[in-house]
Design goal:
Strand order of the largest sheet: 1-4-6-5
Shape: globular
Distance between the termini: 84 Å
Structural class: mainly alpha
Order of helices and strands: HHHHHHHHHHHHHHHHEHEEHHEHHHEE
Number of strands: 6
Radius of gyration: 26 Å
Largest sheet: 4 strands, mixed
Number of helices: 22
């Protein structure tokens, strides 16, 4: 017989609201992933295919003629294989579903943690979902079919483990840390963020012990771990670290990731630039404003509301990272939501009680409205997703689909091609016989005179450098992108004093030289770009 009491407990308004929210953001992520093609998607597929066929991870570069024969590390090798298998066996639709589900699963994990940690009323939950929705729109530029999403999910899982250990002092939960970080190190170099989190947690717990023993500070909410707890946590963390050396790259993985100490790419690749570089995301900006306001208010209300040091420090750590680079905003959301929600509940306690009283009066109409609204928008998003089978044939306005068809006939010139940086990954998958100067895998690679290869790439566009470098590298062909003529500024960018001149491309000395030189001629021209060939 059916147990109707259990069914009633499952189908509460809270659960229906959460499910509707997850459906809603799932279609937002899916819609977003179909709206563009990641420049790196092609090379992820190619190296996933090569790893699967050769049964070994990539070691030697053979697509960029500038780095031909050099060793390199594919720190995303396992995820590349997974994406390639899904794409080749099931199609592009399932690749998009895979990444959209990964993003939603992260939100589910976060909310399970939050709703267990705090006894939330219905309007507290709505405040949380609105805050998460703001974060969703800030996250979208970095999500889609993007392998970096794995850091979003694994960071949430690691925080879940840490919070469980901190609350219950259960050593068994720590057994999951080593396999998690070991597996993470195969999927993405972002696993280093996991070790940073472990170090912050350890440092905070040492601080709490010191404060409690020598000078107890009243505004800190203590959750003390014993010396035994800390020793076990340290041993597990160290074991997890040394375990990552057993991967296929061993010590080479860390030496390669150390190359990211070069900072040139942080100001010359769009998603790595600081958060206040244009284009400025309105949702990112407001999430940061809310978060910084909460941090400041925490000190004003310090007599009434104690600070949880671990949540506070990881929030500060990721605020700094995300201000330095837009790419870190998704990680900021995961690390800060616990601190932010805790203080929002405290700050809006009286207001929340008032709204809950109103809610009890109009609960039926309210329930119906919010659920129907979320599901209706979800349906609208679903109906407007431009489902495609082959993404490489559907983005002619962004990638050189027709231009590659043009230059494939010039076989004698394939070995030394200077191509738009963002098109390298696309070319590796669709025309691997073409050897380019640089693609999206190795912008930070040490090249010459203590400079990265991305710096050398940018020198081609400098005055008086174009001709010399083209001759020095014996470039046979160039595939260049046409600059956008107009770009619209949003109201926030105008508020900060930016204008249309800011968006105008700087003088392109390389293109000016090619147009005026008698050594070069135009091979073909399309709406997206132009191909020059040496006479």
């Amino acid at each position: 017989m059916f147990n109707f009491d259990k069914i009633k407990k499952i189908f509460t308004f809270r659960n229906i609201l959460l499910v509707s929210f997850y459906v809603f953001i799932f279609f937002i992520f899916l819609y977003n992933s179909y709206s563009y093609l990641d420049p790196d998607f092609g090379w992820h597929l190619k190296f996933g295919q090569e790893t699967l066929l050769t049964k070994q991870v990539p070691h030697i570069e053979h697509y960029n003629f500038t780095l031909f024969g050099k060793s390199w590390v594919d720190h995303e090798w396992l995820l590349n294989v997974i994406v390639y298998v899904i794409y080749s066996k099931m199609g592009y639709l399932y690749v998009n579903l895979f990444f959209a589900f990964m993003a939603v699963l992260t939100f589910i994990i976060i909310n399970i943690l939050l709703l267990k940690k705090y006894k939330t009323k219905i309007f507290d939950l709505i405040i949380l979902l609105l805050l998460e929705l703001l974060a969703v729109f800030g996250i979208l530029p970095h999500f889609g079919v993007r392998v970096q999403e794995i850091n979003f999910l694994f960071l949430a899982i690691l925080i879940l483990i840490i919070f469980h250990f901190e609350k219950n002092k259960n050593y068994k939960i720590l057994l999951f840390i080593a396999p998690l970080l070991f597996f993470w190190s195969f999927l993405h170099g972002g696993f280093l963020i996991g070790f940073a989190l472990l170090f912050i947690f350890f440092s905070v717990k040492i601080l709490e012990l010191i404060f409690q023993k020598f000078k107890k500070i009243n505004f800190i909410e203590y959750n003390i771990l014993s010396i035994k707890d800390l020793i076990i946590f340290t041993c597990v963390s160290l074991f997890s670290f040394f375990l990552t050396f057993l991967g296929p790259y061993k010590f080479e993985l860390y030496s390669f990731l150390y190359q990211y100490k070069d900072t040139f790419y942080l100001t010359h690749i769009a998603e790595w630039v600081p958060v206040f570089y244009i284009p400025i995301s309105i949702s990112k900006f407001f999430y940061l404003v809310i978060l910084v306001s909460i941090i400041l208010l925490a000190f004003f209300y310090i007599k009434f509301k104690k600070i949880k040091l671990f949540e506070f420090f990881i929030t500060i750590f990721f605020v700094i990272l995300s201000i330095k680079s837009k790419r870190h905003f998704p990680l900021l959301f995961i690390s800060s939501i616990f601190f932010a929600f805790d203080y929002l509940i405290f700050l809006f306690y009286d207001f929340s009680n008032f709204l809950n009283k109103i809610y009890r009066e109009i609960y039926f109409i309210y329930k119906i409205f919010i659920i129907v609204f979320l599901l209706s928008i979800s349906l609208f998003l679903f109906l407007n997703i431009g489902f495609i089978e082959d993404p490489f044939l559907n983005f002619k306005n962004e990638y050189p689909v027709d231009l590659l068809d043009c230059i494939k006939n010039q076989k004698q010139n394939h070995q030394r091609v200077f191509m738009e940086y963002g098109w390298g990954g696309y070319t590796i998958w669709t025309a691997p016989e073409i050897k380019t100067f640089l693609d999206g895998r190795l912008p930070q690679y040490p090249f010459k005179n203590n400079k990265s290869i991305l710096q050398e790439y940018n020198h081609f566009f400098d005055d008086k450098e174009s001709e010399r470098l083209l001759d020095e590298y014996n470039i046979k062909m160039l595939v260049l992108k046409k600059e956008n003529e107009k770009n619209k500024l949003n109201w926030l960018e105008r508020f900060f004093g930016f204008n249309e001149k800011t968006y105008k491309p700087s003088k392109n000395a390389l293109k000016e030289y090619l147009n005026s030189s008698n050594k070069w001629m135009i091979l073909c021209k399309e709406k997206i770009g132009i191909v020059f060939i040496r006479k």
